[in-house]
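Researcher: Let's walk through a ligand-bound prediction step by step. First, I give you the protein sequence. Second, the SMILES string for zinc ion. Third, you return the three-dimensional complex as structure tokens. Ready?
Model: Ready.
Researcher: Here are steps one and two:
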Amino acid sequence: MKSLAVACSALCLPLLPASAAVADDVVPVESPVPLAPPGNVVAEQFGTGLQVTWEAVTGATSYQVLADPSGATCVTATTSCVFDTLPVRTTYTFTVTATDGVVTSPASVPSTPVRLRAQLAEPIFAKDKVLVGRSVRGRKIWAVRQGNPLAVDVMLSIGQMHGSEPAGLRVTDRLRRKPVPADADYQLWTIRTMNPDGASRGNRYNARGVDLNRNFPGTWSTRQYRSGRGPGSEPETRAMMRFIKRLKPTGVLSFHQPWNTVLSVCDQRSAYWVRRTAQLIGLRQPGRPSSCGRWLPGTMNRWTARNTASWFVTVELAPSHRLGRQVRKSATAVVRLAEEMASDSGPALGMAVG
Ligand SMILES: [Zn+2]
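Model: Step three, the predicted complex:
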């Protein structure tokens, strides 16, 4: 460049004004053109991450996006970036700067804050109504989903196991009418009854006279009254085992009657939820949490505690003639428990109560 300039100056100098001679050996660089900051920065949930988009800046060749908090950055030549390794359950804002390789723009106005929800890459079940299985008599056991199909936190509410205990059917009917937003931090699954044969006759047992809450494997015993021919011998039991293993719920509520209290296997992860459930519905608090009381073989809560990471609360509502407002309060409580479970407050409190 310099030799060209010299060659030119030798030839051209006489034609140029005197002032041009001063620039003789200065590299001719265009004066920098300032870049405007990117406008309209928008962030939203995109699968398991957050996608940030903005408007292109004239003259820019690439952009850098900065996440606050975390400090993570993304550099791109396009006008969008996906952040898919940010910690979940955190609220972020993003700013974007543009560059043309020489000049960098001021940072954009931050995006409106967006919370990164804990989400699955795809739903556990494609449909929001799932056939869990069939009873001895061939009746269908259905599970229905409300809320966010991609939420990591999953609540399962089982309205009825014993056909002679109808209160949980009413709780389920109320629950299914509740508007649970599709962008909730949880998905709520309800099974109206897992014992449709018993329900049709108002009978505690299934059609073979087996108490389903004595039929689950792991702690099954021949000594137990009406426990079935063997562990998991009943189709209703096996259907629930398959469903729960696939659903991997965060929490399970199983409605019964008529003791007006809450029962559990007294494991560490259920302790908080047992007390919280009783508090929200207005049921008698359980006795000493360390004493699990008499425990029964073959129960669904023991099987769930042994085979999943879920907490489990057996809800014993009052007898039907004394239910009062318990049905309405129960439905409200299930949603509230799901919300708390999916926020940071629930598990944190759970540790404290232990
Ligand atoms: Zn029961």
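Researcher: And what stands out?
Model: Residues 1-21, 347-354 have pLDDT under 50 and may be disordered. The longest strand covers residues 90-99.
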